[in-house]
Design brief:
The protein has 16 helices and no strands. It is an all-alpha fold and 414 residues long.
């Protein structure tokens, strides 16, 4: 606890923390308002909803690495300030959009405006904090993120209900103004520009990214594992509500499951620092993948064997699920800070994020196909089984790498 409190004594960190918190709240409120207003105000068809969801996520998949390269070349504080201003403008655009077509265009612009946040924040963390402090801030910000995940959608729904219009986007516009102020505070610690800006590439160097993956086994291992987490999640996540419905659970049960996932992740954030004092990030990610995949597999097996699933058992499973998924993502964030070169952290983090988004886009397509042709329960069993198989493979690979390292050490000592 004292280590976490001491973070706020670091110059620039309070501005970074509050700016990140405002961004997290705004993203979840935006997400809730966008799709609730499309459904209830504009009476949008399923195809329009699907297209809008694609427009919201597509910028990160395609343009993320380019924004990451910009964050590496320019000051991360400048990228954060420009991103916050863009979110302010897009919130106003969404608030005054006259029809669903214009609204969808502003949704795409909102997706673009969110792109600079992740790479800029990664660079700021690396500049302000030591390795030990990075573990503390990753755990702290994860806990805050999960709390906003629980509360912000409720706030968005309340705004949508109370205002009966797009006026709820006024809140995210105000949050964007607060974020601009926080970005100015961060600039006081990291500056407004890089001293070697002219020597940094304007476009993402994908050859460099690939070379880093090849030359740094720990980075490659953690990246492969986090993409596995995203793939497994994509395979089953959109089908959870169908599983609940088909096994006799009320509509409110899905909210309970989401809350349990967040509570599990919060619990992991509390214990993560203790876990990582005993095992490396890559090894802990393997363990977390085992637990995450096992919960999905058990849910599928239970669905195959019983007619009505117990909500209490499912809530317990998804608490463990959230604990393990949150742990995997947090361990990856820490490994990324340690393994990626500081001068390429923006493009590496953004490229990795694009890979995760690709998995989250492709996963639901495959999962829905399997559910349609082989059965819903088989989708969960298959997703969990794939995750366990990859975890076993990663464990064997890590053991082999340690064995080779020990052999080299013994030969050098002779």
């Amino acid at each position: 606890m004292s280590a976490t409190i001491s973070l706020f004594g670091i110059r620039g960190y309070p501005s970074f923390f509050w700016g990140r918190t405002f961004n997290s709240i705004a993203i979840w409120v935006d997400f809730t308002l966008i799709f609730s207003l499309l459904s209830f105000n504009f009476d949008a068809s399923p195809s329009v909803l699907g297209m809008t969801a694609a427009l919201y996520g597509l910028p990160g998949l395609l343009a993320g690495p380019f924004i990451g390269a910009l964050a590496d070349r320019k000051s991360p504080a400048l990228v954060m300030l420009c991103g916050a201003f863009a979110r302010f403008v897009t919130s106003l655009g969404l608030a005054f959009a006259p029809n669903e077509g214009v609204f969808a265009v502003w949704v795409f612009a909102k997706g673009v405006s969110n792109l600079g946040t992740i790479p800029a924040e990664q660079i700021v963390i690396r500049r302000l904090l030591s390795d030990a402090q990075i573990v503390s801030t990753v755990a702290l910000t994860s806990i805050v993120d999960q709390c906003t995940k629980i509360l912000s959608p409720l706030l968005g729904a309340a705004l949508s209900f109370a205002l009966h219009s797009q006026g709820g986007f006024a809140l995210t516009a105000i949050l964007a103004v607060f974020s601009m102020g926080c970005a100015i505070g961060v600039a006081g610690a990291v500056g407004w520009r890089h001293s070697d800006e002219s020597r940094r590439p304007r476009c993402p160097d994908f050859a460099l990214f690939w070379r880093l993956i090849m030359e740094r086994p720990a980075l490659a291992s953690t990246l492969g594992l986090v993409v596995t987490f995203s793939t497994i999640l994509g395979l089953y996540d959109s089908l959870v509500v169908v599983l609940l419905r088909d096994h006799g659970q009320p509509a409110s049960s899905f909210g309970s499951i989401v809350s349990c996932t967040a509570l599990g992740a919060i619990g992991c954030g509390v214990f993560l620092k203790n876990i990582l004092t005993h095992v490396s990030e890559s090894k802990s990610m393997t363990w977390f993948l085992v637990g995450f995949s096992a919960t999905v597999l058990v849910a599928g097996v239970l669905a195959l064997t019983v007619t009505k699933l117990s909500l209490g058992v499912l809530c317990l499973l998804w608490c463990i699920n959230g604990f393990c998924y949150g742990g995997g993502v947090m361990a990856y964030a820490i490994a990324l800070q340690k393994e990626a070169p500081p001068d390429s952290l923006g493009v590496v983090s953004a490229s990795a994020r694009s890979m995760q988004l690709a998995a989250l886009v492709i996963g639901p397509i495959i999962g829905s196909w399997v559910a349609q042709h082989l059965g819903l329960e088989i989708t969960f069993v298959s997703a969990g089984g794939i995750g366990l198989a990859i975890a076993v493979f990663a464990t064997l690979k890590q053991a082999l790498a340690r064995q080779r390292s020990n052999k080299r050490a013994s030969v050098q000592s002779m």
